[in-house]
Design goal:
Layout: H1 2-7, H2 16-30, H3 34-84, H4 100-140, H5 158-196, H6 200-207, H7 224-262, H8 266-270, H9 273-276, H10 294-313, H11 315-332, H12 339-352, H13 357-403, H14 414-429, H15 431-449, E1 454-455, E2 458-459, H16 460-501, H17 509-523, H18 525-544, H19 547-579
Antiparallel strand pairs: 1-2
Length: 581
């Protein structure tokens, strides 16, 4: 290799001139013609041009590539700024003068920073998208979402990121609300299952397995389907609770009725305090664990069945007790019944076995219920009847009191009787209005029900009418007695006046005629009319009263018959005197 390099004259420092000179020497030594030499030189020149041309083309191509790179860099810079929502960037040079490479070198740092910022922004968008996608999946019921969310790199502005953050916050708020609802539903299911004696875990698992995860390792389902199924489960449990409570209360009422019928001691009743404690409770008030368990209801059913069987053996005693209650209601309501026939009918029904004991008792309960309603409808009238009868008793006492001639004597207790008489008079004065009110209310009652209102078997209106007639007769009798008494007193007064007005036998006749008109004016016209009335009324009085009054009135009557004749003659004499001028 060293020998070859020593023999090669082209090796070493060489320029175009030295090479051309060396070529001339070689040509001279070889003896090349001028023509060949010219061709060779032209060829060398052409080859040099080709090399230069190639180099120029390469340089031009490199320049174009640099310009394209600069243009791409500027486009990328603008795209990054647009995607990031930035109007300007601090690292971008304000002036773009200089060579292409200088311009590229000036833009490159800004591009690097924007690429890094874009990568961070994409990561933020991806995180927000992932959370949004996860929450949307939880709401939709799809908990297994593993695909990475696609990020739109064309818009990575902070405004868009804030919109996604706002959307994420709304979804998180909705998730929190849904989770709160889920927990409320789960808590309600837990409480209802405790009251009903049901398995909470199996009930919740049937809705969604994630709801029983107490460690929080698995997210609880908050989907619409889960919420709907939870709500349906809660409604079903509440309805079951309502039905069980209603059934338990019915059993409790049956137990209490049977206990009361058979006089069950308190010691036996206390054994079922856990059953009867919710007799009056509402659905929301029952919250004790196991208060409505099926075994408790079955226990109450068994006890009711046992007492029913025991009740059948004591049917007669219970039926007669109800009949006694019914009779007591009728007695207090003053309704007339036939208790012996009713008891015989009960005995016949029980002995025949044609009626179920429960049906018989239910029928008697219905009779008692109707009797109570009937008694209630009669109560207002019966209260006024009691007042009326009490007033009639006071009226009777007052009449006896008024007939007592010694009622004003200063005897022991006279002042009490006097006070009672005053009160009795006030009460007696109210009787007519009370009777009118009773008649109106009784007629309204009868029109409303279409039946007659009877008081101990007697029509009340007939009683009131009879009382009104008797009271009217008694008032007429009292008025007639007062008139008779007044008439007798007036008659005695007039008779005394007649005796004093008659002339003595020793008086002259002329004097009698003179004073006749004056006597006529005082003792002739009016007494004659009253006497005829007296004779008629005295006759009726003697027919109705005793002999004592007849004897007392006999003398005035005879005297009146004599005085009439004398009065007639006196009238004629008076007329004669009056006729003369």
């Amino acid at each position: 290799m060293a020998v070859t390099d020593a023999q090669n004259p082209l090796v070493g420092e060489a320029t175009c001139g030295t090479l051309l000179k060396k070529l001339q020497e070689i040509w001279d030594e070889v003896g090349e013609s001028d023509e060949d030499r010219d061709k060779m030189l032209i060829q060398i020149e052409q080859e040099c041009l080709d090399v230069y041309k190639k180099k120029v083309e390469q340089a031009a191509k490199s320049r174009v590539q640099l310009l394209e790179a600069l243009s791409d860099a500027k486009i990328e810079l603008a795209r990054l700024l647009s995607a990031l929502g930035e109007k300007s960037f601090a690292g971008i040079p304000e002036k773009t003068s200089g060579t292409i490479k200088e311009q590229l070198a000036a833009i490159a740092p800004a591009l690097e920073q924007l690429w890094e910022q874009k990568a961070e922004r994409v990561k933020e968008f991806s995180d927000v998208h992932s959370q949004i996608q996860k929450i949307c999946g939880e709401i939709a019921g799809n908990l297994n979402i593993n695909d990475a969310p696609a990020v739109d790199e064309a818009d990575l502005s902070l405004k868009k990121l804030d919109e996604y953050h706002a959307q994420l916050q709304e979804l998180q708020k909705e998730k929190s609300g849904r989770l709160h609802k889920v927990l409320e539903f789960v808590s309600s299911v837990h409480d209802l299952c405790a009251v009903l004696g049901m398995d909470f875990f199996s009930t919740v698992t049937d809705v969604h397995p994630s709801l029983i995860d107490s460690t929080g390792a698995q997210s609880k389902s908050i989907s619409n389907d889960t919420l709907a199924r939870l709500a349906k489960t809660v409604l079903a449990l509440k309805e079951d609770k309502k039905q069980r409570l209603h059934k338990l209360q019915e059993l409790t009422n049956q137990l209490i009725d049977l206990w009361n019928l058979m006089d069950t001691p308190m010691e036996e009743r206390k054994l079922f305090d856990h059953v009867t404690c919710n007799m009056l409770a509402s659905v929301d008030e029952v919250a004790a664990p196991g208060a409505l368990a099926l075994d408790l209801i079955e226990q109450a059913e068994v006890e009711v069945e046992r007492l029913d069987q025991l009740k059948a053996s004591r049917m007669k005693e219970i039926a007669f007790r109800k009949q006694a209650e019914l009779e007591e209601i009728y007695v207090h309501a003053h309704i007339e019944i036939d208790p012996e026939a009713a008891r015989e009918k009960i005995m016949t029904l029980i002995d025949s076995g044609n009626v179920e004991p429960t049906e018989l008792l239910a029928d008697m309960d219905n009779q008692i219920s109707r009797a109570k309603e009937e008694a209630l409808s009669r109560k207002e009238i019966l209260d006024k009847v009691e007042k009326w009868m009490s007033a009639c008793e006071e009226e009777s006492w007052l009449e006896d009191y008024n007939r007592d001639e010694n009622r004003y004597n200063a005897s022991r207790g006279a002042h009490l009787n006097l006070k009672r008489a005053e009160k009795a008079r006030i009460l007696v004065n109210k009787i007519p209005a009370l009777v009118d009110t009773l008649v109106a209310k009784t007629r309204a009652w009868e029109e409303d029900r279409g039946i007659q209102f009877a008081y101990d078997g007697v029509p009340l209106l007939a009683m009131l009418d009879e009382y009104a007639m008797l009271r009217q007769e008694r008032e007429e009798e009292k008025r007639r007695m007062r008139d008779q008494k007044k008439f007798h007193e007036q008659q005695n007064t007039e008779q005394d006046a007649i005796f004093s007005a008659r002339p003595s036998p020793a008086r002259p006749v002329g004097t009698k005629k003179v004073v006749g008109p004056r006597a006529n004016g005082s003792a002739n016209g009016t007494p004659s009319r009253r006497l005829s009335l007296n004779s008629h009324q005295n006759g009726s009085s003697s027919a109705t009263k005793g002999g004592r009054r007849d004897n007392r009135l006999s003398a005035p009557v005879n005297y009146v018959s004599i005085s009439k004749d004398d009065a007639a003659s006196h009238f004629s004499g008076t007329d004669t005197v009056s006729a003369s001028p």
